[in-house]
Amino acid sequence: MSYSNVTDPNIECISVSPLAGDDHKYHLHSSPELNMKRLLADGFPDIYQICKVFRDNEYSSRHQPEFTIIEWYRKNYDLTKIMNETVEFIEMIIKTSRTISDPNFLSYHEIFSQTLGVNPLSTTTKKLAKIANENLNLSTSLNMDRDQWLDLLMVNCIAPKIPSDRLTIIYHYPASQAALAKICQKNDKVADRFEVFFGSLELANGYAELTNFKEQQRRFKSDQLTRKSRGLTSKTPDTQYAAAMKSGLPECSGVAVGLDRLMMIDLKASNINSTQHFPLENPSN
């Protein structure tokens, strides 16, 4: 007897209460990152997880609110090692359906310089806005901060020009976009963070992980202020994660790879819905 692997959605169109009479709100996770780091801090060896993750209001040909990732962590891996391992993993899957050229490694600075002729680490916010308006013909004035302008340029001006015959690895993102990555020891203007693209399709996001507890707490507070300034809901601090980090996270690197998007490449599909048995419909349509 032969079997086919299937997966059911975790998001349902009905509301349920986990416990009778429990008024506490529960949430679907957007990433397993924090809990996996708690395991590392507790002494676990190299670990990986394949799981569903959830992002609200993400509907497009490349986005679904519910999707599947594989995330893993390697102790004593630096940025170079985790980038190379990620490329090896992705190529192993992609090469089953197509021939691709050797991967291209470019720093964030290099790809902005080559594509737009600008240094993303030093150019003023005003200049970034001017470049965006010139390239995208924006009809309205957008009140955005520096990183939002950089993201806009990356998504709309740079990513569409990334070759689709190979993997492109962009590394050393600005320190302001470090998230939970270490700041590079050789250049404190950049973070040990990377992303992997196949053409304009982002496949992976990884870090050499930040292990300094005090710096993590500072970043969490800064993130709350940023979310407030952008009109976003503040996040409730994860006290269990904070306690684990305070006890000590070992030197490690981690990465998350979107499996649905890898399937898009394997199937030569233009829409992520083709990779899911039960894609959610955009309620606004």
Automatic annotation (TrEMBL):
Aminoacyl-transfer RNA synthetases class-II family profile domain ranges (all copies): 47-279
| GO MF terms held by the record | ATP binding; lysine-tRNA ligase activity; tRNA binding
Q: Which residues form the signal peptide?
A: none
InterPro entries, per database record: Aa-tRNA-synt_II, aa-tRNA-synth_II, aa-tRNA-synth_II/BPL/LPL, EpmA, Lys-tRNA-synth_II_C
- Matching Pfam families, A to Z? tRNA-synt_2 (PF00152)
BP GO annotations = lysyl-tRNA aminoacylation
PROSITE patterns found in the cross-reference section = AA_TRNA_LIGASE_II (PS50862)
> What keywords are annotated for this sequence in UniProt?
ATP-binding, Ligase, Nucleotide-binding
What GO terms fall under cellular component here? cytosol
**Can the keyword ATP-binding be found in this entry's annotation?**
yes
What is this protein's name?
Answer: Aminoacyl-transfer RNA synthetases class-II family profile domain-containing protein
